[in-house]
Amino acid sequence: xxxxxxGAVPPTEARVRRRLLPPLDRYVFVEFLKVLxxxxxxxxxxxxIIDISEKLDSYLARQLPMRDIALAYLYGVPDTMFLVxxxxxxxxxxxxxxxxxxxxxxxxxxxxxxxFHRLIAPIALGALATTGVGLLLAEALPPLNARxxxxxxxxxxxxxxxxxxxxYASETxxxxxxxFADVRESRMESVAIERPGxxxxxxxxxxxxxxxxxxxxxxxxxxxxxxxxxxxxxxNVTVQFDSLRDAHLTEAPSNLMANPKAPAEMGFGDLGRFxxxxxxxxxxxxxxxxxxxxxxxxxxxxxxxxxxxxxLATSTQRGGTAYGIAISLATTVIFxxxxxxxxxxxxxxxxxPELAAWIPxxxxxxxxxxxxxxxRT
Length: 377
Prior knowledge:
Layout: H1 11-20, H2 23-61, H3 66-102, H4 105-111, H5 116-119, H6 121-151, H7 154-158, E1 162-169, E2 175-182, E3 187-195, E4 204-215, E5 219-230, E6 237-245, H8 253-257, H9 268-280, H10 286-313, H11 320-347, H12 353-374
Antiparallel strand pairs: 1-2, 2-3, 3-4, 4-5, 5-6
Helix pairs in contact: 2-3, 2-6, 3-6, 3-10, 3-11, 6-10, 9-10, 10-11, 10-12, 11-12
C-alpha cells in the first residue's frame, strides 16, 4: 500500500488542484498563454527593427556608441510591450479560439454540455491578468524610459532652459506674467505679479519689475520695480523701489518654466502633478491629460479587446491561419485609428481629454459585448 502511493500526489492535494484549475481550463489557458507570450515579445522586436532602421543615421550623427544604442533599445522593450499588449491579447484570443474551431474542439465541448462562454473563461481570466500586468508596467516604465532617452541624448535635443512671454498661476492665486526667463542663469525679466483682492481690507496689488534673480537660500531678489496697491476701483497707491524680496514668490526658476517632459518618463501620479504645474504656467495640457489617462485605458483594453476577438475567432475555420491574421490586423488597425482620432479630438479640447482616452475602448466594449451575446453557445 505504501509502495503504490510512493512519489504520487496525495489524493487531497490532487483534488485541490482539480478544483482550482480543471484540466480543460488548464488546457485553454496554456494554449492562450503560448500565443500571448510569443506576440508580447515578438511585436516589440519587430518595432525595434523598424525604428532602428529609420533612426540609426541620426544616432550615428550624434556619435553615439553602438553599446549605448543597443542598451537604449533594450530599456525600450518594456515600453513597447506595454503599447502592444492589447494587440497581443487579440492575436492570442483569435488564434487560440480559431484553433479550437478548426479542430472541432468547440463542437466537442458543446456536445459535453460546456457552453462557449464557459469555454473561453480561462482566456478572459488571462486577458484580465494581462490588464494587471499592463498597469504594473505603466508605473515601472518611467525610470527605464528616462534612462533610454538619456542614452540616446533625446533630452539634449528636446529640452530648453529658456522661455519668453508666458503666464504662470501659483497655487495661492497670484498670477505671474514673465517676459523672459532663463533657468541656467536663474533670472527673469519684465515681470508683472498680480494678486487679486477682495476690497480695502485685502486689496488687489500689481507688482512690476524689470528683472529678478534667484538664490536657492533667499529666494527671488526683484529689482527696479513699482508696486500698485488698488483698494478699490477709484484708488491707486504707488510705491517705487530699487530692490525687494517677495516672501510669497517661492517658485524656483524650473517651476516657472515647467519645461515639457515626455509622458513616458512619468507615472500616473507624477504626470498628474506635472500637468497641474503646466496648467499654472499657462500651457495647454489637454494632450498630456489624454496621455495620462491612456496609462489606465490601454491596459484595460486588453480585456475589452478579448470580447471582440473571441466571437470573431469562431469564423476562422473558413480561412484558416491567414483569416485569423487578417481579422487580428484589421481589428488592431481600426483600434489604432480610433485611438489617434480621439487623441486629436481630446488634445484639441473638443471633448474632455480623459473621456477621449476611453472612447475607443468603450466602442470596442459595446461591439464586443453584442458579438459575444450573439455567439451560439
